[in-house]
Amino acid sequence: MLEVDLSLERLLFNLNTLAELGEEITSPKDFTRVVKSSLYMVMGSFAASKGAIFQYDSEDQRFNAIAAKGLSDIKGAGFKLSKEAVKEIVKFNKPIDLKGDPAHAALLGPAKAELEKASARVLAFLVVKDELLGVISINEKFSGQDYTVYDFQLLSVMAQHISFSLHSHTLLTKLMHKYTENKGLYENLRRIYYDTIHAFAAAIDAKDAYTKGHSHRVSAYCTVVAREMGWSPDEIEGIRISGLLHDIGKIAVDKSIINKASPLTSNECRELNSHPVIGYEILSKIKFPWKGIPMMTRNHHEKVDGTGYPDRLKKAEIPLGARIMALVDAFDAMTTDRPYRPRLSFKEAMDEVRENFGKQFDPEVVQPFISVIRKEVLGEVENPSIVPLLQEHLDSVTVNRLLEGFPGIS
Ligand SMILES: [Fe+2]
């Protein structure tokens, strides 16, 4: 290393280069471009014609080139250092002159020969908080002059600038990796979660020979009515899940009662009517990401006039989701075969809804329900959810005539 007297011109040039390097490193450009232009600035500062920036992969202890000019021999393969060598280099934390500083160059072990073969002369390691992130390598100066102490100081400062950039990039990459990994795990959990809920719904429906698919239909009907009422996506998801699970309490009810064709005794009736409370007790132990599922389940057999069960709640005391569910649950029960009677036609079912309008069913819910059916029959809905599940064809004239007669519905 030679001592040199510094001209003011050279000093200014280097300060300017450092300022430009700082600007480049903090620019929002693509990381590969930042690394490449940083390398060119370093090479330009020392009039070196060849150079490379390597990123250190601590797992396989390998330095991989992320930008290179002229040092093509080493670009693809990179080079390795032992753990001990890395430790020593981090401790030393100064540029190493392969020719002029044999003591420290020896730290590199077999990599020294590889680097020399690729024309490397000076190495400046990129270290942040005692962590080795990479190295900048440049060849002889074009002038053939040796590197000076001042050159080494300047190279150290430049290496620090680049280290911070590499450090931020490494952190960001690790974060992205963690994010992708967590996202994958989350997706898996979500799938398992939904599979479990669907399995429960299938188990509930399997108990009742007549109501196959009832939970899925109630879930689908609840979803479209809630959407029609302007619910948020989270609220809609909550009622969709609730629809799938609303009869979960039937798991505890004897199968012979559920499938009985003749009228139930009062004891059997009491057992069957216990299912909303049993369902509530099962579901309230689960920490759902959506609000209100246990209460919607508990209150899906309430009536707005206060004659329902289990809590005999009136209109606004009943959660809105449970009022939606009460309507679509009854509608599906009416329009599908039951052990004690064949299914009602759409017209007959709507007559029942009209008969119980404001008594069993909430007009605020009947209105959007009718609105959805009308839109589906008129072909105004892209993916209809109610009409295709009915076991009859509905024409728009009949449906319009039928629905127009509803009190309070235009
Ligand atoms: Fe029920």
Description:
With 410 residues, the protein is an alpha+beta fold. The protein has two domains: 8-177, 2-Layer Sandwich (Beta-Lactamase); 209-404, Hypothetical protein af1432, CATH 1.10.3210. It is 54% helix and 8% strand. It is built from 17 helices and six strands. It has a six-stranded antiparallel sheet with strand order 3-2-1-6-5-4. Helix 1 (8-25) packs antiparallel against helix 2 (31-46), helix 2 (31-46) packs antiparallel against helix 7 (149-206) and helix 8 crosses helix 16. The protein is elongated and about 105 Å long. The site of fe (ii) ion (FE2) has 6 residues, from loops.
CATH topology of the largest domain: Hypothetical protein af1432
DSSP helix count?
17
Spatial strand sequence of the major β-sheet: 3-2-1-6-5-4
Residue stretches low in confidence (pLDDT < 50, at least 5 long) are 1-5
Task: Spell out which ligands are present.
Answer: fe (ii) ion
CATH architecture of the largest domain: Orthogonal Bundle
User: What's the SSE pattern?
Assistant: HHEEHEHEHHEEHHHHHHHHHHH
The largest sheet, given as strand count, sense and whether it forms a barrel, is: 6 strands, antiparallel
Helices, strands, pairings?
Elements (H helix, E strand, L loop, with lengths): L7 H18 L5 H16 L4 E7 L4 E8 L2 H4 L3 E2 L2 H10 L3 E2 L4 H4 L5 H7 L4 E7 L2 E8 L10 H58 L7 H15 L4 H13 L9 H4 L7 H7 L2 H9 L9 H6 L21 H15 L11 H10 L7 H15 L18 H9 L6
Bound molecules: fe (ii) ion.
